[in-house]
Amino acid sequence: MSAPSEAAEPGPAASVLPELRVMWWEEGVRARAEAGLRAVAQALPRLVRTAFRIAWQADRARTAIVLTCTLVAGAMSTAGLLATQQVLVGLFSAGPTPDRVSAALPALALLAGAAAVRAGMGIATGYALNGLTPRVDRTVQRRLYEATTAVRLDAFDEDAFADDMERAGRGMDSVIGLVNATMALAAGAIGVLSVAVALVVVHPLLLGAMLLATLPNAWSALRAGHLEYQTYVAGSVRRRRLWILNRLMADRLTAAELRAYGLRGFLLGQFDTVMETETRIQLDLARRVTTTNALGAVTGGLASGAVYVLLGWLLLSGSIPLAAAATAVIALQAARHSLNTVTYQVDTLYTEGRHFDDYTGFMERARGHLPAGDGQGEAGPLRELRVEAVRLSYPDRDRPALDEVSLTVRAGQTVAFVGENGSGKTTLAAVLAALRTPSSGGVSWNGTPLPELDAGRLRARIAVVSQDYWKWPFSAGVNIRLGDPDSPADQERVEAAARRAVAHDMIMQLPFGYDTLLDRTFADGQDLSGGQWQRISAARGFLRDADLLIMDEPSSALDPRAEDALFQAIRDRQGTLTTILITHRLANVRHADMIYVLHEGRLVQSGRHAELMAAGGRYAELFTLQAQGYLDPA
User: Fold this and answer.
1) Which of 429 and 106 is assigned the larger pLDDT?
2) Which of 128, 205, 253, 531 has the smallest number of CB atoms closer than 10 Å to its CB?
């Protein structure tokens, strides 16, 4: 049976929201979700091994305690059922009541002892699992974040990577369920085994009858869980879109623009469109799960009735005594409980295991996005940075972002990249910062190709002030210290960087100075304007005092006085340290040693300001357009 999906039921959502279309990367996952119950049975051994391996790696002692206690509890179950039979034999035997009670007392003591031991094993198991759970969670979470923080930047350009990460996050959350379900499954399976041993002792036919009575419910539980997983897999894009809409409609950062443009109706309409699809799919799922469970319940009820008919026949025919029949009734109830536990845990184990497969699959695919093996070369002080025929393309873009770009930057120079939006300036800066790897061509540092250099030591010599800076939810001081996290900076150094970025006086006016938390969602947190955040970002870049400082639109939100002071700090580096400057305010690049003009990914002009103005062309055109804005219109 196919999973309900947008493909099966195209509605208005598909035409309004392109994010809801069936994407090619979902096909493989959906194919896995189509596996039948045979696949469940085939997958269980692997999932059980996986869960035990994770638990063992996280905490061997507690895992051993759980396993030991589970085995002992199972043995006590068998002993308890056999003791129950002996108690009933003693009570149902001929003779005076005191004699019958006395005959039953040893078995009764054994029954009480078995129950006490089982209770103790349950307490010990709970204690061990409570300690095991956080250790397992920590191990799996850290592995995921180790992968997401190590992959190349271009991984985030791929739509499939976002879906993979979402499923991996759900898989990460499922690992606790996977381990707990495995432990509970082991307990249930041992409980079934103990009951089976007791039933065989009573009468072999009862073992088959027990299985016959419980299999229908087992099938329905497994099938219902499988249907739910199919629906979950098919809704990955839909969930991400809902999450985005939830943030847009209930976030303080979007609240002002939402109201200013009257976006309430538009966003609610988008929400309704997605939820119409979601509601239709969930109702269809509920119908199919209810039908499956009802079929299992009816069939199971008929089978249970047949079991009790069999038990009555055995009793009437003299095949088993009354005490054994009573024991069989107790055992069948225990078996039903244990098998219900097993089937529920099988369903949970398989469902959580499939989610965990998404986690392990992402971890495997993430290895393909890791940077090539770091070179061993030492990145010494920068003397020359050479770019040779670099070409770079983004996914689903017809035109390359960089197309055969070649240039040279020498130590102490201030170099400017100029061009219109989309010309390739930021991409070229990312290539120079070793954040992106070109499709062809290469970049060398002092004559050594970047891939041959130790990546960590290379990046320690580069600082990047990005136009897309992140507003880290830490204090002002910590925000600046993030510019050089591996070299703890004292307060004097932090303040010096802030002064160069025209940020010190602004920070001192905050309620707690450098200790002020820059996140209004926390107590005593503060908001900053765009220009104030830009100063913090520039201070991060200045803190490292790197050989190569790349500043991408560092003054777009600054007032004229702050902008002038910032560019004076940049000019102070000239002649000693190297700076690459990207800005649309061309008056600020007149002092540059070299200006490179890019257009549609190609390098179309290069030279100093005076040379480019004399040559005419694109740079002169852009500069003249800006200059006219400052002329008296009269």
Assistant:
1) 429
2) 253
